Amino acid sequence: MKELEARIKKDGRVLGADVLKVDSFLNHQVDPVLMQKMGQEFYEYFKTKPITKILTVESSGIAPAVMTGLAFQKPVVFARKHKSITMNNDMYVADVYSFTKKTANKISISKNFLNSQDHVLIIDDFLANGQAVSGLTDIIQQSQATLEGIGIVIEKTFQKGRQLIDQQNIPILSLARIKAFKDGQVVFEEE
Predict the structure, then answer these.
(1) Which terminus of the chain, N or C, has fewer Cβ atoms within 10 Å?
(2) Is 189 helix (H, G, I), strand (E, B) or coil?
């Protein structure tokens, strides 16, 4: 998605060898117009799939997931990273390690919102090492739902996340694919 790539080049900041900060439009301050266009891109790619639910992890995946849900006219369910006092033990739970934050989290989704009748599209902000997608996939398997595809806003192809997905033959669309960070600049994969 050329508009997203242009925004990454304009407003993204490379930190070190493998971190891209996009907090001015994606994961702190959110550009709703860009989110809506991304949701439409995911819809166009996956619209032939019988999607019943959009699934993501809180919190940075919520904005693109909601816009995708709007395009599909389907509910969005987000896995929580922290258990609230209103949540009971009737949950699907998976472990997810964040390399950016250097923390492990248990993510959870209420069994009320995901079941064997569901056909799920995962939407997430980043694909790097594949931990969030792996955790969501684990939850989908626990629920016996069907994983129909994965939509990623920004993929870092120089990390192993895509390989994990490709081994499972899951349809995937990444709107921006980054090959490398070079001299503080983003280098995108060629079309």
Answers:
(1) C
(2) coil
